[in-house]
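Structure catalogue
Derive tokens from sequence
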Amino acid sequence: MKRWMKYGLLGASGLLVIAAAAVLVGAELGDRKQHRKVEVSVVAVPPATDTAAVARGRYLFMSRGCAECHGPDGAGRDVVNDGKGFLVHSPNITPGPNNVVARYAAVDWVRTIRHGVKPSGQPVLVMPSEDYNRFTDSDLAALVGFVSQMPPAQGGGAAINLPLPMKALYGFGLIPDAASKIDHTLPPSQPVTEAVSAEHGAYVANACIGCHGAGLAGGKISGGPPDWPPAANLTPGTGTVMGRYPDAQAFAAMLRSGKRPDGTGVSTVMPFASMRELSDTDVQALYLHLKRLKPLATGEGR
């Protein structure tokens, strides 16, 4: 009996050593992956600075998650800080001191926003550029035009600290960055009429991909803190959350209030500060699109 206990302890110790070695190897791979060069072919989109474009850019900034991460003033903020070593602090993207975009040319904005790649060619680790890859040129120009004329704010560069196990998962490809998710060969989306239509709703829904997946079927959010709940399945299959919302009004009420029709709260991981900014047209169009999606199992098509 003692012999078997001895062998068991030796085996367990060996597994721990192997696991620790795997984490260290994965972390090293993560460092290399973080500093890799991503080659993308990028065409510059000049920023649009006329009154209408800046107004559109402000709307996109506030409703598509930009303000959620960078702050309404664009100065940057802690997006994640669990007090245990997992930190994601977004950079200052205003014209203020120590901003990260001071030397951005038009092509750099496109590379970063649409492709998830820094001007240096390295991947942007946390920014969900897959949400913005399908921006039309006019919307991209409007967004950059708005950001470029924001009041200067105090704030520095990005600060990212991933716990060792998370860095290992990133190194082994189990947590992908945006640059590895995006099909960089796709041409920009063509404009669609802004109307209460499923076609326009599909364009709005691009902003949901980062959390809910390409198929919008939800599942575990890649790269999120361990205590984050899975993203909801937004397809119309049996048992998905869309069954809670019989019409666009009920859906809109949830986005505005953060509460389901029964009064219970939706996870605060959901970026309600941005969702509340969506126009009625965008919300109703989004609802039409979601109701017409192909039903998928939760987590399918991520």
The mean pLDDT is 90.
